[in-house]
Amino acid sequence: MRDTFARTLYQVAKKRSNVFIVVADISPAGSMAPFREEFPDHFINVGVAEQTMISLCAGLALRGCTAFAYTIATFSIYRPFEQVRIDLCYQNLPVTVVGIGGGVSYSTLGGTHHAQEDIAVVGAIPNMAVIAPCDPLETEAATWVCAERNGPTYLRLGKAGEPNLTGDAPEPFEFGKVRKIKEGRDVCIIAYGPIMKMAFEVAEKLERDEQRSVAIYSAHTVKPLDTAGIKRILDNFETVAVVEEHSVRGSLGGQVKQLAWDVRANCKLLTFSLRDEFIHQFGSQRDMWTAHGLTPEIIYDAIVAGS
User: What is the reported pTM?
Assistant: First the structure.
């Protein structure tokens, strides 16, 4: 995803002369090279100074520029939170805060690098939009959306190696709308971000072993949430499951449960998320999902038991 973002931003910059990227100590070296070489005055590395990164982007926006602030997710949000809230959101400026490694993507680096509650934190700020694409194709579309938006956006990305899952999606990517990416009739799985691949694994097993027709929707725009689209899903499926790589606190699952209560939904609703705790374990991203109780087997068993 990070390489796709870098390549797409380069294409955006070739069409729009006012695009800047400000990074804090890191950059996707290989993939960002074309941007840095062709637009050296629009690539700024502030070093380990995340607050400066955000405030500099705010200043660029006030001068009519479109700015992207880029670093690891925990450092793009938590360390400069006051600047994100006041410099960007209070003034409603067109700045995209790019968080690389959302969730537990940086699985081997421990809790300091796990952005497991980031959506809850930034989603609580007025004016901030949150986009979390599920694959490189959605990342490309999301980057263009961010460049064209008129307000602050948190773009939550994975790290690397994510497969393309939406190439045959029956619906297009549209900001603010849940997106059907796989047809189905009986069960619906809603997800966002790299954990979407687990949704496909669960769907395959349900269709193979239980003969259940499974639809999959991408809730790539977590804020503003497409409540009308979610309501249609709750109305049209017997069982709905929300799967996300985020803490149960301030989660998409919690919002869907609230909506289901408000509209008196009759479907069976299941939610799966990261636990509300720091887990002191190291390994692959999937190892961390397992430690949090997020596995295809657990989700499959819960859906079968609840059907």
Answer: 0.96
